[in-house]
Amino acid sequence: MKRICVFAGSNVGASPEFEQGAVRLGQLLAEQNIELVYGGSKIGLMGSIADSVLQSGGKVTGVMPKNLFKREIIHPLVTEFHETETMHERKALMSELADGYIALPGGIGTFEELFEVLCWAQIGIHKKPIGALNVLNYYDPVSELIKKAATAGFMPQANVDLLIIEKQPEMLLEKMFNQNKGIRTEEEIDL
C-alpha cells in the first residue's frame, strides 16, 4: 500500500486519546512511506493526522469540495491539494488515489465514508483493505452492528471480516498489509 485514505472527525473529540491515536497513526504512515489521502482540512483529527504525517517527513494529499472551504479550513502545508465540485467527487477521488482506508473516530460524516467503502467492497467495486482505529473502544458498537447484520441475515457472515478493527495503529496497519497480500494491483494485472 502506497497511499491510505483516512476518514476522520473535523473535531478532536472529548478525550486526548483520540488525537494521540491520530498522531501516532500519522507517524507510522510517514515511517512506512505511506502517503496520507484525506479531506484536506487543518482542523480536528483531520488536521492532527495531516500535521503528524508532515512533521514526520511524509506526504499528504488533501481533497476538498469548494463549498466546504468556509467551514473546513484548507491545510496550507499539504503536499498536494485537489479541489472538487461536490462531496461525491471528493469521495470518488480519495478512493481512486488510495490503496486502503482507515477510519479514525469521528461523527456522521466519518461513519458515512466508512460505510460507503464497506458497501463498495461488499459489492465488489474494490478489494482494498478497510480498517478502523478503535481508540477507547470507539468502534465497538459498529463492530456489533455489523455482526448483527450478518446474524440477522442481511449480509453474508464473510463480509463481517471486511472491516479490520484494532486499538493499536501498528497492529491495524499490519493486519491491513496482511489482508492486502495476494491482491494484485491494476498495474500488476496490466503487466
UniProtKB/TrEMBL annotation:
Q: Which InterPro entries match?
A: LOG, LOG_fam
Q: Which SUPFAM superfamilies match?
A: MCP/YpsA-like
Q: What class of enzyme is it?
A: hydrolase
For whether the record's keyword set contains Hydrolase, the answer is yes
Q: Which UniProt keywords apply?
A: Cytokinin biosynthesis, Hydrolase
Q: Which domain of life is it from?
A: Bacteria
Q: Which family does it belong to?
A: Belongs to the LOG family.
Q: Which NCBIfam families match?
A: Rossman fold protein, TIGR00730 family
This chain's protein is named Cytokinin riboside 5'-monophosphate phosphoribohydrolase
The taxonomy runs: Bacteria, Bacillati, Bacillota, Bacilli, Bacillales
